[in-house]
Amino acid sequence: MARRMPFRACRSAALLLCVSVSPGVAQAGVVINCTRVIYPANRKEVSVNLRNVGEAPSLVQAWIDAGEGRAEPANTSVPFAIVPPLFRLDPTKGQTLRIMYSQAALAADRETVFWLNVLDVPPRVPVNPDAPNRLEMAFRHRLKLFFRPTGLRGNPADAAKQIEWILTRKDGKLAIEARNPTPYFISLTSATVTLGAPIAALAPPMLAPFSSSVLALAQTAAGLPGTATVTYSFVNDFGGVVTGEATARTAA
């Protein structure tokens, strides 16, 4: 009979669990087949595939939250069930997570974002007083889960093209306002404004549906130019980074 390695009990909301000190670097053994999850409202369930590419078994816990990153799974309230929520995953083996929507009421005119958490806890290594110190860690993967109602106008692949870029000022510096007129979340990864020379925007956000965000630029604004070119990048439904270009105008 194969000997089962003992697992260390995990604190479910922990991002990093240190057991002992080591100069080595640990790596997560469990990998996920996607970087985001899209849940169409007309689907009974969606699946996420995991695989253990490490050399040791892992204890895996999965749960969904609504943005409470530090909350315990038992203290989150979301309209989804996930099966299985806790399981052992042996090396080279895979496991499918099934996510099911409870049909609780959510906004019908726009997407709603949740977060899928996958906690990967490696087994406890027996203590050997003659061995060098070790660092044992639990890794938490945290992925965005977008609930997408049926019948939303437009194509999510084209949402970033619909952003309205407005030149403005913030705290005496040039700034650019990004307005999202679509019912989709837009995950920007970069935005650069060209006014003779490229000027990077600070911390491009994830734009919520029908919202806007003002991004400061690293330049003093004595006056506002009439127009400027914005080069931006965003993450699409498949996790790929797409680049686009648009013209920014001065606020009326």
Keywords:
single chain, 252 residues, mainly beta, Immunoglobulin-like, 2 domains, eight-stranded mixed beta sheet, five-stranded mixed beta sheet, 17 strands, disordered N terminus
Note down, in words, how this protein is organized.
The chain has 252 residues and is an all-beta fold. It has two domains: 30-148, Sandwich (Immunoglobulin-like), CATH 2.60.40; 156-250, Immunoglobulins (Immunoglobulin-like). The protein is 0% helix and 48% strand. It has strands spanning 30-32, 36-40, 45-52, 58-65, 80-83, 86-89, 94-101, 112-121, 139-148, 164-170, 173-180, 186-195, 197-200, 206-207, 211-220, 227-235, 241-250. The strands form three sheets. Strands 10, 11, 12, 13, 14, 15, 16 and 17 form an eight-stranded mixed beta sheet that branches.
Write the SSE topology.
Elements: E1 30-32, E2 36-40, E3 45-52, E4 58-65, E5 80-83, E6 86-89, E7 94-101, E8 112-121, E9 139-148, E10 164-170, E11 173-180, E12 186-195, E13 197-200, E14 206-207, E15 211-220, E16 227-235, E17 241-250
Parallel strand pairs: 2-9, 10-17
Antiparallel strand pairs: 1-3, 3-7, 4-6, 4-8, 5-7, 8-9, 10-11, 11-15, 12-13, 12-14, 12-16, 16-17
